[in-house]
Each structure stands twice: as C-alpha cells, then as structure tokens.
Specification:
694 residues, alpha/beta, Alkaline Phosphatase, subunit A, four-stranded antiparallel beta sheet, 25 helices, 22 strands, binds (2R)-2,3-dihydroxypropyl phosphate, binds manganese (II) ion
Length: 694
C-alpha cells in the first residue's frame, strides 16, 4: 500500500514539474511570439554593431567583445522598451524609424573607417572643410559592398512586419496599462543589464570613455551606439560652455594682454636661427631623470645625453599637461596656451582659432609638416594639425607598417624614423626652408614589450674576488621586473632609435642647416614606490632601505612632482663647444617655448602665456593645469595649499599668495581664449556688433 502511495506521490510530483516546465516553455514561447517585433529590433540592432566591429577591427577579441555586445543590448533594449508605449498597430513605424537611424550610424562609421581607420565624429562633420573631405570619402567608398551589409537589418524588420501583418498580429488590443507594464518591465531588464555592465568596467575603460580620444577602444568596449552618444555630448558641451560669460571673458582677456607689447623684446639670441630648417622631436614619455643615468656603467640614453651635453639643454623644464597628455603637450608647445579646464582642446575645441608655431613660420615662407605613424584621428590630430598650421600631416597611412615592425601602439620608432628620413629628404629637395614635427610612439606606457626593446639589463652586477683568487659575478635584481625598470629598457630603445635617426639625417646632409629640437611630452606616469626602489635600493635584502636608515633618500609627493621634469634641448651639429652649448637650469615650462624659440627664429605670438627664458631668466614661474606652480625657489601644491622650498632663500606668504593669484588668472584667461574662441578676430567682431546693437 505504502509503495503504491509513494509511487503515486512521485507521479504527482513529476506531473506537476512537467506542467511547470510546459507552462514555462509556453510562457517563453508566448513571450517570443507576442514580442517578435521588439526582439527583431533588438537582435538586428546588436547584429549591425557587431558586424561593424567585425569589418573594422580584425580580431575576434574585438568583434566578439562581450562588453560591447552587452552595451549594445542595453541601448537597443532601452530604445525598444519605449516602443511599448505605442499602440501595436503604430509600433512598427517607431521601430523602423530607429532601425534606420541605428543602421545609418553603423553605415556611416563603416564608410568612415574604411577611409580614415577611425570612427566618425559629429563635431568633425560640423567643420565645413572637413565635410568636403568626408564627402569625397563617401563617394569613393559608396561602391564598397561591405558598407551595404547593414541594410539587412531594416529588411529583416520589414519582412517580420509583413508576416505579422498577415497573421493579423497588429489587430490584437493591448490596454494602456498593459503597454505601460511591458515598457517598464523591459526598461528594468535594460537597467539590470546596465548595472552588471557598469560593475565590469575597469578604471582604464572609464578613463578612456571620458577622455574620448581613443575611439577604437571606446567602440571595442562600449559599442558603436554608446560611442556615438558619447561623441554627441562631447560635441555639444563646448557649445554650452561658450554660451555664457562671453563679455566678462573678453574683457578679462583684453585687460590681461593690454600691457603686452606687439613686438618681441630682443636679447643676445634674437634671430640666431632665422631661416634655418627645423626638426622637432615630440619624445613620448621621455623624462629628464634618464639623462646620464647608468646601469652597470652603461648609459640608459647615450644619444640623448650627447644631445644634452653638446647642445643647449634645459634641465629644469616641465611639461604642463592635463588629461589630454600628448595632445595637451602639443597644444602648449605650439601655442603657449594651457590645456582647457574641462575636456581637451584637441578633441572638444578643435574648431577654435589657434596661433601655432607652424602658422607663424608659414608666414615666413616655411613649408611645415608633421609626422606620426599612428592613426590620424588619435587625439583628433587630423583636424588640429591643420588648425595649428601644419601644411601636411604624414600619418599611419603614409607609412609602410608590417607586423615585424610593430611595437606597442604601432610602428616602431626605428622604422618610423627610417621612413620619415626618406620623406624629409624629398621635402628638402622641394623646399628652401622647412619645419617638421616628428611624434614618437614606442616609448608609451605600459612599456611591457620588453623582448622587443633589445638587451639592456637594469640590474646590478658586481664582480668579487674570492680568497683563492678566483672571481665571481653577483647579480642583484634591482630594477629588473619593475615597471620603472621596463621603462628604462623602453627608453633605451627610443634613445637608440634617435641615435640611428641622427646618423641617417647626417648621412643625408639634412643636419647641415637644421636646428634639432627635442621635448619630452610628459612623464611616464609610473608609481612613486618604483622611484623609491631606484633611489633607496637595499641590495643585500633585495628591498628598499628603511626610512630610518641614514642612507635613505626621501622621495615624497613633492619629489615625485618635481621628478616629472622632461628634457628640452635645442641642438645643432656645430654647437658643441660654442657659446650656445650649455645647460640652463632656470625653471621653464612648455609654454615658454613659443616666446623663446620665437625670438631665435624671428616669429612672435602676442597671446603667449609663457616668456622668453632669456628675458625672464631666474624670475620665471611655471603654472600647471591643476593650479600647482613652481619657481626656482618653491614648488606649490594647490590641493594641499602647501609648498616645498627649493632653496635656502626665505619665501614670504605674500609671494605665495601673488603666485597663486597669477596662476589662477592665467588658467582662467587661457581657458577662456579657447572656450570663447577669443583669438578669432572675425567672430569676435561679429559678437561685439551684436552686443552693441542690442
Ligand atoms: C597617440 C600618442 C599617445 O598617438 O601620441 O598619446 P598619449 O597617450 O601619450 O596622450
Ligand atoms: Mn604622450
């Protein structure tokens, strides 16, 4: 009896479970059949974005990036959810409209990528000259079949719609409350997915999302739809910023420059290089602390050291970058303006007027060009180099790049220099006077491709003699395996690339009438504790010395800030032993380059924030975008409102207060110049007229 009872119980349980499964399957099936249009919209939307990544970025990791797929799903589901507010019979129009819109985003980006190896930006399309370029691109690419593949999405949607219509699907009545419920439920799904997505983001993802310059990375991690929305915000934000406060900004700007003369002050270096050709090296992440540094008696940067010791070397020089890193450095080098307070000048304010060194040299009959073997749209250089006056920008597509020549972000510096020297040779044949900027790339964080940099041990090797007269080599790991150690290996490679480049230029007689200028663009952004090991290594215990140890050298946050100095060198082949061959130790910033070089080459920019170092000498101040500043006497930290004296000289509180005020004013006026486009005389005349007529 008991057995029968149990068997019956089991049977009942099984039947209930079966019913549950059938019910669940039925519910799922019902959900699918009731929401076919919505689901088709979501699937085709995600599919299009995935196809775009597949056609643009040729690695499975990129096109099947689950982060991008998730982000696309969130966006398309959220858009789709709003469709439920609409009556079923009108819903197709809504989905179809958005489907066309999303398809257009994918198609435009696909065409744009084929031509520019980058993704499209709304802000760029607003520049008239650019529209011309893009227009040509579209015409040339429109015939490519692959760009038409995205049309499959609206076609599928139409197909599904016609089938549903035939089945009388749209005739069913959904109550308003039901529709709302569906919409909110779908939005909640999208919300939950969003939370999951946000939890998976790394700090690198977040930082790149906000910096906005690495478009490929954003598309790879966030999908094309989020990228385009992000780009839209970036394009609108500067316009919003520029809507308020023009009059005040313009007045402050005029007051600031009222006392500045219209011509440069002269000194013993006036016009010394007038008419000479120029090669400028933008040395990626090159820091001053590598100069003369040795490991096992081997110089880390023998070529850089030679340039510094046989040229005019500024060893107390700071770059003044903000979140725009390389691009900020280029901005300040070229224009003597400071980086903007929000966004980056290169990306957010590329349609403003800038007075760049190339513009000023073009006026003197120079042919000006820039070279960088990376994507032309990185940091929006394609637009900004034109804007700063470079007549030709040689970028990735101008270089032959094959797998063996790639290190880190792209073409290796050695190969970049080799191919650039050939280009410069041709330029030299065609033009009397020329000025060229070469942007290096290999020595870029994370400095991890150590095996490609060539042999350069950063350990300590000691030979000891045993009692029996035999010798033995002891190796202490020291900087081996640390990030800073890898940086030294990487910089050693970059230095050797520089050396080869100089030799090649010399062989081609391109140094005979040329001034060779080098600046480090910013520091290597390495952890402070790595420097602690460099300066306080305890080799016996393979650790860092104790703070109590008499040998211990303090490397606090101030030392770290000061240690971020980068080299600035002006060098010519015949400078060694001449009056120009010396080290200048006065504090100097990137914004002092325009006035200093301007005096030497005979150009002048009244709206420079820096000074000719040979007029200001030891009275200089270098301001940083975060409000910090440094003079020969003191380093001031604005966040802590505290300072570190650098000499024995007394410092008054008044001096500190004056410098703080000077820095804040300078940062405000410089920022306003960019935000309100104050150097654009035509535009400002118009604005003034509007204000007067009001
Ligand atoms: C990109 C390169 C690096 O082309 O200049 O930029 P960064 O990350 O140094 O700003
Ligand atoms: Mn850089």
């Amino acid at each position: 009896m008991k057995i029968v009872k149990n068997a019956f119980k089991r049977l009942k349980k099984n039947v209930i479970n079966r019913i549950k499964v059938i019910k669940r399957d039925h519910l799922i099936r019902k959900y699918f059949s009731d929401n076919v249009l919505f689901l088709t919209f979501v699937i085709t939307g995600v599919l299009n974005s995935t196809i775009l990544r597949f056609l643009c970025m040729h690695s499975v990791e990129n096109y099947l990036s689950w982060k991008a797929i998730l982000a696309d799903t969130i966006v398309v589901t959220a858009i789709g959810a709003f469709g439920y507010f609409i009556k079923p019979k009108d819903r197709f129009i809504y989905y179809f409209g958005f489907c066309i819109f999303l398809t257009a985003i994918c198609m435009i980006n696909s065409v744009y990528y084929t031509f520019y190896t980058s993704f499209a930006s709304i802000s760029m399309l607003s520049l008239t000259q650019y529209i011309g370029d893009v227009g040509d691109a579209v015409v040339e690419n429109v015939l490519q079949l692959k760009d038409l593949v995205y049309i499959i999405s609206p076609l599928i949607l139409i197909g599904v719609h016609l089938k549903l219509k035939k089945k009388n699907y749209y005739k069913k009545v959904e109550l308003k409350t039901e529709r709302r419920k569906l919409a909110f439920k779908t939005l909640s799904v999208s919300g939950v997915l969003l939370v999951i997505f946000l939890l998976t983001l790394s700090s690198l993802d977040i930082s790149r999302f906000f910096k906005q310059w690495n478009k490929e990375y954003i598309v790879m991690r966030f999908g094309i739809y989020v990228y385009q929305a992000n780009d839209l915000v970036a394009s609108v934000q500067p316009k919003v910023n520029a809507m308020f406060g023009y009059d005040k900004a313009s007045k402050e700007f005029n007051d600031y420059f009222a006392e500045v003369p219209d011509k440069a002050e002269t000194n013993q270096y006036t016009d010394i290089f007038k008419g000479k050709n120029v090669i400028v090296i933008h040395a990626e992440s090159m820091m001053t602390n590598v100069i003369d540094l040795k490991f096992n008696d081997q110089e880390v940067t023998p070529n850089l050291n030679k340039l510094a010791h046989t040229g005019m070397y500024f060893n107390n020089f700071y770059s003044q970058v903000s979140v725009g890193t390389s691009s900020d450095s280029e901005l300040t080098y070229n224009t003597s303006l400071m980086p903007t307070k929000s966004g980056t000048a290169f990306v957010s304010y590329s349609n403003r007027k800038y007075i760049g060194i190339p513009t000023l040299l073009n006026e003197q009959g120079y042919y000006t060009f820039s070279m960088h073997a990376n994507n032309a749209d990185f940091w929006n250089r394609r637009t900004m180099h034109k804007n700063m006056g470079y007549q030709r920008f040689y970028s990735k597509t101008d270089y032959e790049i094959d797998k063996e020549n790639v290190i880190g972000l792209g073409l290796s510096d050695k190969e970049f220099f080799r191919q650039s020297a050939e280009k410069i040779e041709k330029i030299n044949e065609k033009h009397d006077k020329w000025y060229g900027l070469l942007i290096m790339l290999t020595n870029h964080t994370p400095f991890s491709e150590v095996d490609k940099y060539g042999e350069f041990p950063v350990d300590i090797k000691e030979t000891i003699t045993n009692e029996d007269g035999t010798t033995e080599e002891i190796v202490y790991p020291y900087m081996e395996g640390t990030k800073l150690g890898n940086y030294f290996k990487s910089i050693h490679y970059a230095d050797s690339a520089l050396g080869e480049f100089l030799t090649e230029l010399d062989q081609k007689h391109l140094l005979d009438n040329t001034v060779f200028i080098l600046y480090g663009d910013h520091d290597a952004r390495l952890p402070r504790k790595n420097y602690n090991r460099l300066y306080n290594y305890d080799k016996e215990n393979d650790t860092t010395l104790d703070e109590e140890d008499p040998e211990y050298k303090e490397y606090d946050s101030y030392q770290y800030e000061i240690g971020r100095r980068v080299p600035f060198i002006i060098w010519t082949k015949d400078m060694e032993g001449s009056k120009l061959n010396f080290t200048n130790s006065n504090v100097m910033g990137m914004y002092d380059v325009v006035p200093t070089l301007g005096n030497m080459f005979g150009f002048y920019n009244k709206y420079a924030f820096g000074h000719d170092i040979y007029n200001i000498n030891d009275n200089n101040i270098v301001c940083f975008p975060n409000g910090n500043w440094v003079t020969n006497k003191v380093y001031y930290n604005s966040q802590k409102a505290a300072y570190l004296p650098l000499t024995e000289e007394p410092i008054s509180e008044e001096e500190i207060a004056n410098n703080v005020e000077y820095t804040n004013k300078l940062l405000d006026v410089s920022n306003n110049i960019i935000v309100f486009d104050l150097l654009n005389e035509d535009k400002n005349k118009e604005l003034k007229e509007v204000t007067i007529n009001k």
